[in-house]
Specification:
Rossmann fold, Elongation Factor Tu (Ef-tu), domain 3, 7 helices, 18 strands, 2Fe-2S_ferredoxin-type, globular, 18% helix, alpha/beta
Length: 318
């Protein structure tokens, strides 16, 4: 973990605070590409992931923007209590939501605070002189972080604002936007879980290939009521042959942790990808939103923080 200090606190919109994090000694922080996030260890000990919301202008600074979520499990509320001079520990940047190295037209679609990883994508695409358009969906300009800055950005001509509570704007017409680009573009979408699912479903219906639909969830969608009750199964460790019982009320991660098998876990809801693990044998019962449909179908990977097993034994590449 890297120690940093809160250098500035800025209110970016209703309920959204932007933090400027700097290295303690002024030295450069690790470089990153658009779409990256960092793990932040808050003073209480909570570990949370937040997207880096701007490309670095000066190497010693990172910036994040955080919405105070009414459904917060404590992380966003604690972030909003931070003040200048507070110290934190962060990870080096990780990127599970990168821009694809292609000259295809890019369609960026943000829902609310989902703008945070997409803003540096727009900056990077503009810098590389690659074609793109940026659709920002929010209730109003007052709730849309960075909306004023984006209207003045070097790529302002590529911005499309969709404010559902502004009569002259209205909601984004997904069919219109997505149907114009299904054959030759890359889609990047981030925002609330239901918003992402709606965009991806519409894109799929319009013929977008799975490999050109990229998304990042900040939280897992509501539990599907059609998912059956959890059942017990066994998990096998490939390297040692050890077999452990996973009861119906336990996660794979909990069982591994209780038996001294280390596995890095962060979100515990199948969103961040930190605990991604290879599967040697057995069929996973996927409960995550991180892996793609193709990756789910392959059965080669599993998220032990939330997923389970459809077979009596699930052998993991650990």
């Amino acid at each position: 973990m890297i120690p940093v200090i809160v250098r500035n606190v800025v209110i970016e919109a209703q309920g959204v605070v932007r933090l400027v994090l700097g290295s303690l000694d002024g030295s450069g922080l690790p470089a990153f590409e658009a779409g990256a996030h960092i793990d932040i260890k808050l003073p209480s000990g909570l570990l949370r992931q937040y997207s880096l919301c701007r490309l670095q202008v000066e190497a010693q600074y990172y910036e994040i923007a955080v919405l105070k979520d009414p459904q917060s499990r404590g992380g966003s509320t604690e972030v909003h209590r931070l003040k200048m001079g507070d110290t934190l520990s962060i990870s080096a940047p990780k990127n599970h939501f990168p821009l694809i190295d292609t000259t295809r037209h890019s369609v960026l679609v943000a829902g609310g605070i989902g703008v945070t990883p997409l803003l540096p994508m727009a900056q990077q695409l503009q810098k590389m002189d690659l074609p793109f358009e940026f659709h920002y969906c929010a209730k109003s300009p007052d709730t849309a972080a960075f909306s004023s800055a984006l209207k003045r950005a070097s790529f302002a001509d590529k911005m499309h604002f969709h404010f559902s509570q502004v009569a002259s704007s209205g909601r984004m017409d997904m069919v219109d936007v997505l149907s114009r680009h299904s054959n030759h573009s890359e889609l990047y979408v981030c925002g609330p879980a239901d918003f992402i699912n709606d965009v991806l479903l519409q894109a799929k219906m319009l013929g977008w290939p799975e490999e050109r639909m990229h998304r990042e969830f900040f939280a897992a969608p509501a539990v599907d009521e059609n998912v059956g009750e959890n059942t017990a199964f066994k998990v096998k460790i490939h390297s040692t042959g050890e077999v452990f019982d996973v009861e119906a009320d336990q996660s794979i991660f909990e069982v591994l942790d209780n038996n001294g098998v280390f596995l890095a876990v962060s979100c515990e809801s199948g969103v961040c990808g930190t605990c991604q693990t290879g599967v040697i044998d057995g069929i996973p019962d996927h409960r995550d939103v991180f892996l793609t449909d193709q990756e789910h179908a392959s059965g080669k990977l599993v998220m032990p923080c939330c997923s389970r097993s459809k077979t009596p034994i699930l052998e993991l590449d650990l």
